[in-house]
Amino acid sequence: MQNKFVWIPLVSLVFLGCTKTIIIGNNEQRIEEAPVTYYEEVPIYGTGSGYEINTVNNNVPYSSEPVVSQSKSFNISPLEAFDKMQDNQNVLLLDVRMVHEIPQDGKIADSVMIPLQVLGSNLHRLDKSKEIIVYCHVGNRSVEATQLLQSQGFDAVNMSGGIEEWKRNHLAVRWK
């Protein structure tokens, strides 16, 4: 009987951040260490029967962080945002959270609220001559909003960590 090995599909393990490959064969199991930064061979499965490997794509980069096309100043910290607001009157603070989040988390004074879900249809409410600092609860939605704004020609930056990081830095919030 021929000794065959079964490879657990790497693609799903790669995106989960796993660094181990489990190989199960006839009466044998072993775990091999996988490279963290680059996988040397990532199989591309064909449409034939089973999981036939048609080709191998070499040096496919792996990253646990989402790849975001960012300009040099895509992210700023809450302290940098606070300083910009104090020093520059040409700054607009944009909150992209939902209205029902304010009673629980508060909001930053003088910020304009346009939820991410309706931002695309409300771009006319924003001034392209101002630098826009975008924030949300923890910084996920604001990344998407910042990308949208930049793609439409706005000078926008993401405040990393959102209002939670703002509060961790002991900066003031309003509750209404």
TrEMBL record:
It comes from the Bacteria. Residues 87-175 form the Rhodanese domain. PANTHER family: FAD-DEPENDENT OXIDOREDUCTASE, PYRIDINE NUCLEOTIDE-DISULPHIDE OXIDOREDUCTASE. This is Rhodanese domain-containing protein. It comes from uncultured Sulfurovum sp.
